Amino acid sequence: MKKNYLLLILSLVFTFSLLFAGKANAEAKLIYTTDARTNAVAEKIIQRCSDEDMTQEEKLRRIYMYLVHHMRYSWSTGSTKVHVSKKEINKTKAKAAVLGVSYSSEFRNRYKNVRTLQGTCYGMSKVFCILANHIGYEAHMCHGTHVTGGGSHRSSHYWCYVRINGEKRYFDVQYANRCYHRNRNSSEVEACYKSKKHAKYWRRHYRGE
């Protein structure tokens, strides 16, 4: 009886492995962090704000809007808001093993920002990069200056870009987050989403790469 039960479990695991493997072939390269808990948190956030049947770009937009709505600007990492259990961590590990993801330690200094949903422009950009990489995009940080004070002052700033169909598209989660929470300015939120480098808005407000 125990032998039959064990065989049933093994067959189910094998079946699900094949399903995951088939899905992995259809997806872009997934890049996870080297911290298992952070990966489980990223998985949980993505599940909260997107559905399995969405396209990759639809998921990216949902992730962006989720961070715009839920992250808080803070120099402190704060306390953990997104909790995951050991079971959820092990589940994410198993999924990663089947999908054959790549691991990166690039964002190791900002893992806690993902768990707390707090950070400065640097932390918010890191969180967006982690989540974008998690769904199969190539995402990187940018550093330069951003126009503030009605165009009279340039301050040091971080944002990020994602390669979409081979083209760099720029995202500024922190500035969009500030616009949303201060005055619910939807036009600014949209302007900070997937902008092209040569777009009028981006050329006027940003310097650097």
Shape: globular
When the domains are counted, the total is 1
Counting copies of identical and different chains, the oligomeric state is: single chain
Helix-strand makeup class: alpha/beta
CATH architecture: Roll
What's the CATH class, please? Alpha Beta
Please tally the β strands and state the result: 8
Count of helix runs? 9
Q: Which topology does CATH recognise?
A: C8orf32 fold
Fraction of residues in H or I helices: 40-55%
> Which residues sit in consecutive blocks of at least 5 with pLDDT less than 50?
6-27
Order of helices and strands: HEHHEHEHEHEEEHHHE
Characterize the biggest β-sheet.
Answer: 4 strands, antiparallel
The portion of residues forming beta strands comes to: 15-25%
Overall pLDDT score: 81
Q: How far is the N terminus from the C terminus?
A: 63 Å
Task: Using the CA coordinates, give the radius of gyration.
Answer: 19 Å
Strand order of the largest sheet: 7-6-5-8
Describe what you observe in this structure.
The protein has 209 residues and is α/β, with parallel strands linked by helices. The chain has one domain (28-208): C8orf32 fold. Helix content is 53%, strand content 20%. The protein has helices at residues 2-26, 36-49, 56-70, 86-99, 111-116, 121-134, 173-183, 186-191, 200-205, and strands spanning 31-33, 72-73, 102-104, 118-119, 138-148, 153-164, 167-171, 206-208. It has a four-stranded antiparallel beta sheet. Strands 1-3 form a two-stranded parallel ribbon. Strands 2-4 form a two-stranded parallel sheet. Helix 2 (36-49) packs across helix 4 (86-99), helix 3 (56-70) packs antiparallel against helix 6 (121-134) and helix 3 (56-70) crosses helix 7. It is globular and about 50 Å long. The N and C termini lie far apart (63 Å). 32% of the residues are buried. Residues 6-27 have low confidence and may be disordered.
